[in-house]
């Protein structure tokens, strides 16, 4: 009996490809290219602010053409507003049936709960301290504690308020895995295959290391989307994940 390939059934690699595409046609083409290999497509602020719901519809159409209609959609909108407004925004994206929707943990427990209640079938993924902020920036913002401590405190608060996932840097994943219940998904951007360009990611890790430390889903953009052959690039990273 042969072992399953990354393309078969539930054996898709735990990778969310960041579809930070310049236009809808590219987004759909990228989606078709990677959908046979990966479990998730991430549609972020750039595409959603430009094309709205159509960006997610096109991502799904691309995946469907490539034979993976059930691919997970990760809607990375990083919502942060009063609870009533976030509840309204969450309801507004309900028809897109995202598997994940990001919110800022800094919005507080009532806001996170509002999003979780509005979208019971979606995992609300809380972003704690942005990885673009360093210790000095955190002090300037008047937040008490070192960034690692704040990440853990906010992650616990988010989970207690209904978040089912936490977005964190590869540097934080091991300590969060120990601090949070096992059913909370840990999602890590800043993942780079060995030998790849780090681009502007300051704290990157290899796919194998991030998974070893407890990550459930790896967000990878440019190391796949800037390659000539996106499917081959996705397969290479999937192999590094052991799939
Ligand atoms: O191209 P690259 O792999 O760096 O893309 C990473 C994706 O993850 C981008 O869509 C970026 O917005 C997102 N992201 C990140 N760092 C975070 C949160 C999200 O790079 N802390």
Which helices and strands appear, and what pairs or packs with what?
Blueprint: E1 13-18, H1 24-34, E2 38-44, H2 45-51, H3 53-65, E3 72-79, H4 83-93, E4 100-104, H5 109-118, E5 123-127, H6 135-140, H7 147-160, E6 165-167, H8 173-179, E7 185-188, H9 207-212, E8 217-220, H10 222-225, H11 230-240
Parallel strand pairs: 1-2, 1-8, 2-3, 3-4, 4-5, 5-6, 6-7, 7-8
Helix pairs in contact: 1-3, 2-3, 4-5
Residues 18, 20, 44, 130-131, 167, 189-190, 199, 201, 219-222 line the site of cytidine-5'-monophosphate.
Mean pLDDT over the full residue set: 92
β-strand number: 8
Principal-axes geometry comes out as globular
Low confidence ranges = 1-6
Number of helices: 11
User: Ends: how far apart?
Assistant: 17 Å
CATH architecture: Alpha-Beta Barrel
Helix content: 40-55%
Give the percentage of residues in beta strands. Answer: 15-25%
Main beta sheet:
8 strands, parallel, barrel
Strand order of the largest sheet: 1-2-3-4-5-6-7-8
- Assigned CATH class: Alpha Beta
Order of helices and strands: EHEHHEHEHEHHEHEHEHH
| Broad structural category | alpha/beta
Overall number of domains: 1
What Rg is obtained from the alpha carbons, in whole angstroms?
A: 17 Å
């Amino acid at each position: 009996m042969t072992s399953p390939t990354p393309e078969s059934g539930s054996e898709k690699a735990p990778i969310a490809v960041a579809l930070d595409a310049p236009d809808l046609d590219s987004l759909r083409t990228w989606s078709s290219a990677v959908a046979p290999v990966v479990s998730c497509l991430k549609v972020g602020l750039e595409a959603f602010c430009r094309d709205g719901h159509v960006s997610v519809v096109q991502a799904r159409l691309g995946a469907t053409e490539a034979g993976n209609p059930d691919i997970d959609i990760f809607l990375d909108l990083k919502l942060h507003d009063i609870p009533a407004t976030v509840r309204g925004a969450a309801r507004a994206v309900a028809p897109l049936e995202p598997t994940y929707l990001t919110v800022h943990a800094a919005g507080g427990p009532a806001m996170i709960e509002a999003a979780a209640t509005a979208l019971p079938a979606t995992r609300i993924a809380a972003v704690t301290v942005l990885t673009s902020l360093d210790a000095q920036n955190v002090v300037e913002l008047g937040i008490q504690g070192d960034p690692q401590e704040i990440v853990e405190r906010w992650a616990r608060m988010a989970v207690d308020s209904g978040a089912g996932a936490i977005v964190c840097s590869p540097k934080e994943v091991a300590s969060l895995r120990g601090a949070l219940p096992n059913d909370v998904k840990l999602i890590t951007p800043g993942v780079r295959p060995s030998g790849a360009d780090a681009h502007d990611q300051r704290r990157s890790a290899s796919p194998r290391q991030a998974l070893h430390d407890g990550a459930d889903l790896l967000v990878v953009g440019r190391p796949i989307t800037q390659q000539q052959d996106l499917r081959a690039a996705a397969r290479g990273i999937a192999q590094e994940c052991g799939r």
